[in-house]
Design brief:
It is built from 29 helices and 24 strands. The chain is of the alpha+beta class and 755 residues long. 32% of the residues are buried.
């Protein structure tokens, strides 16, 4: 490859005369980005000042200031300046080139050697537009250069892999821009008791008052402000997801929800009830004079220039006053990495396969608080790039993501999910996300969008994946449309993770484990952990949460079942046979690996296996005692059987004609195939166990049990061969035979003239 600049193609002797000693090469990438409109001139000046003060690389500074994304430079230089974009892990370097450019020199320019082609060394850099750096590398290696572009993270990862640098040194390349004067002062409360006492002393115990002016004045008093701020900040610092402020007859309590469980944080006197609720309403922009109807609002608390925490506020009139619940939306604690949500390997592979499809409807289901929003955001974030247009309609928008166009739903002005979807289709999107499918209008538009080349994400409130199809049919979507448009249904729950510092081994009876859902052969060697409690987990035994996922991929078999409108339980079983891991099994897998406890698995999931028809779950296993009749001669039942253990006697006309002793032998199958009555009786010898296959479900059994299909085929083949032999033998009776020696006709033969 040729270098992209005339300066870079000059001979070494000429470079010294044109070498830019001012360092302008280091800021060239900034000038190029500014001219192209990626950053503003003022942003470039801010970054240049930091570069002059601290050094480093301009692209890294722009990225740390959040003016550009990680991939902006590589996309810009590869598309508009023809630098080849390289992902190093896809193009590993040859061993000899690493010696040409040692780490001590490569790190100065954030460059990495790739390969030799004749006398030309191919290298990749994070800022190949820095002509000064390229010239210095060329002088160092004394070879022609072919320059490519890679991301900083990719190059640093290559340093770790091929030069063997440690994690600490790798972090030094991706420095951060310090923020010194931008932190806001946020009220910290160390002694809640004194603040509560101070607030209570300011109020006299009186009956309910409608003096709204006085209430608003009280809500602005310093003790109430400090108390409310303290409650909000403590919840954020403790990692809570919700705050519940609840009035009762004699007290007012504040509870936090952490890791899915509520616990009491403090009790407050009733005297400050109205003032505290009013303060929360003022912060969230609600009407403090309206106490008769529920209200929804939002609080935004700045905790620094680059961090803010939102609270989604809901007030509800109760018997003893207004209850206020605040959902904490802290983007700093939001994990939108699909690989860290807790997917099993098989389920994750299915999910990636579904996400790679060009169109279709992808549904995430589960109750409120099961993590549906985080899963959707994680999926969208994994697909968010410059060349993909993503539109979302949410009620409300909980987290803002760069590169995703998010729309708030406002029912009051007619901006519903259905209206947003209609508008989206005129915005040339690649991916659409609808917060929730609630009615036939939204469902129809989502289905049609999925059938016309769009990837559509949405949620539903259903118990599991199979129930989701029934719910959509109830809404009014025809099954044939669901079969052709739905790509996957992901049902999920959140379970608490055991504290890694204090979890302990617990013992269970084998029969109890089998009943829960573990396999009989694994219970002997199973190690199960349970909660204990320590200071790190506040004595709860649990710390953090993990997802249990049930992904039903709409394969050809599942689509056929949906089109045929099979019952929910049958659809579930077919999905399991196509690779779906049920919620209970996913939870039990987390128990096996010591991530969660059996109590959490039972609390969050339900087993459906017991409610299914026997032929769809597993053929019925039946136990017989000595002399019990399994098949009776002359009966017209059409079930057939497989011997599991024991021995059987075959009796015809009251006489024993055969025995069945080999496990795996089938019997009674001809009645299922021909529908004729039984020609013999089958009787148990001692105790025996057999599997019963229903003859009226023969097509399903043949479809789902290949070993049974093979046996039936062999049986039919043997019967046909035997019948053919009998026919040939009978036909042979009329064949003319040669006369025996002596010319005498055989005994009983007709006279020669009458043959």
């Amino acid at each position: 490859m040729a270098l992209r600049s005339d300066d870079l193609q000059r001979k070494s002797s000429m470079k010294k005369t044109i070498k830019d000693q001012s360092g302008a090469g280091k800021i060239k990438i900034g000038e190029l980005l500014s001219k192209a409109g990626y950053i503003t001139p003022s942003q470039l000046e801010t970054a240049k000042k930091i570069l002059q003060k601290k050094g480093g690389r301009l692209s890294n500074i722009l990225q740390q200031l959040e003016y550009i994304d990680e991939t902006t430079v590589i996309n810009f230089l590869s598309r508009q300046h023809n630098y080849p974009a390289v992902v190093i892990k896809n193009e590993p370097p040859s061993k000899d080139v690493l010696k040409l450019l040692p780490y001590s020199e490569a790190k100065k320019y954030l460059a990495f050697p790739l390969r030799m082609a004749g006398n030309t060394l191919q290298i990749t850099m994070s800022e190949p537009s820095d002509s000064e750096a390229v010239e210095e590398i060329q002088n160092l290696v004394n070879k022609e250069l072919s320059v490519c572009v890679s991301t900083e993270a990719d190059i640093v990862e290559a340093y770790q892999k091929y030069y063997g640098i440690d994690a600490e040194e790798a972090k030094s390349f991706l420095g951060t821009v310090e923020e010194t004067s931008n932190e806001m002062e946020v009220t910290q409360v160390d002694d809640f008791g004194s603040i509560v006492a101070e607030a209570a002393d300011d109020f006299e115990i009186e009956g309910d008052s409608d003096d709204d002016i006085g209430e608003q004045f009280a809500a602005s008093d310093a003790p109430i402000i400090k108390l409310v701020n303290g409650i909000l900040i403590k919840a954020v610092q403790d990692g809570a997801s919700d705050i519940h402020v609840e009035p009762y007859e004699k007290t007012m309590q504040v509870r936090y929800r952490k890791d899915g469980s509520l616990f009491k944080s403090m009790n407050l006197p009733l005297t400050i009830k109205n003032a505290m609720v009013a303060r929360l309403k003022i912060l969230s922009g609600l009407d403090i004079t309206e106490r008769r109807v529920p209200q929804d609002g939002r609080i935004k608390m700045r905790m620094g220039k680059n961090r803010s925490v939102d609270f989604r506020v809901s007030s509800l009139p109760t018997l003893f006053g207004e209850s206020v619940v605040l959902r904490i939306l802290d983007k700093a604690s939001l994990n939108v990495d699909l690989t860290k949500l807790g997917f099993e390997i098989e389920t994750f592979e299915m999910l990636k396969r579904c996400l790679r499809r060009p169109q279709g409807l992808l549904l995430v289901t589960g109750p409120t608080g099961s993590g549906k929003t985080v899963t959707l955001y994680s999926a969208l974030n994994s697909m968010n790039s410059e060349d993909i247009k993503i539109l979302t309609a949410e009620d409300p928008v909980e987290f803002n993501f760069k590169g995703i166009n998010q729309v708030n739903v406002h029912k009051e002005i007619g901006m519903t999910f259905a209206a947003a979807l209609k508008a989206f289709l005129r915005q040339d999107p690649d991916i659409i996300m609808v917060g929730e499918i609630r009615d036939i209008d939204t469902a129809e538009i989502a289905i049609k969008a999925a059938m016309t080349g769009h990837l559509v994400f949405s949620t539903l409130h259903t118990n599991d994946s199979a129930a989701t199809i029934g719910r959509l049919v109830d809404i009014g979507i025809p099954p044939y449309m669901l079969a052709s448009s739905v790509t996957m249904v992901l049902s999920q729950r959140l379970g608490r993770k055991l504290c890694g510092n204090c979890k302990k081994i617990v013992e269970y009876e084998p029969a109890e484990l089998i009943k829960i859902g573990f396999r009989e052969e694994e219970v002997k060697d199973l190690t199960i952990y349970g909660p204990n409690g320590c200071t790190e987990c506040n004595g709860l035994g649990y710390r953090g949460r993990v997802g249990f996922f049930e992904l039903m991929e709409i394969t050809d078999e599942v689509a056929k079942a949906i089109s045929a409108e099979v019952p929910e339980d049958q659809l579930r079983k077919i999905a399991v046979q196509e690779g779906m891991t049920p919620l209970r099994d996913a939870a039990l897998q987390k128990v096996r690996t010591g991530v969660t406890s059996i109590e959490e698995a039972l609390r969050r999931t339900v087993a459906h296996r017991e409610s299914l028809p026997a032929y769809l779950v597993n053929p019925d296993q039946e136990n017989y005692e000595d002399a019990d009749v399994i098949i009776r001669e002359g009966n017209k039942d059409i079930d057939f059987f497989k011997l599991i253990r024991g021995a059987l006697t075959v009796v015809k006309g009251g006489k024993k004609i055969a025995e069945l002793t080999e496990p795996g032998e089938y019997f009674g199958e001809m009645a299922s195939i021909t529908g004729e009555q039984r020609t013999a009786s089958i009787i148990s010898q001692g105790r025996s166990t057999v599997k019963r296959f229903p003859g009226d479900k023969l097509e399903e059994i043949i479809d789902k049990y290949p070993d049974v299909s093979r046996h039936l085929f062999k049986t039919m083949t043997k019967r046909l061969q035997k019948s053919n032999q009998i026919i040939v033998k009978l036909a042979g009776g009329g064949v003319r035979r040669p006369p025996p020696p002596g010319g005498a006709p055989p005994s009983g033969a007709p006279p020669l003239g009458r043959r």
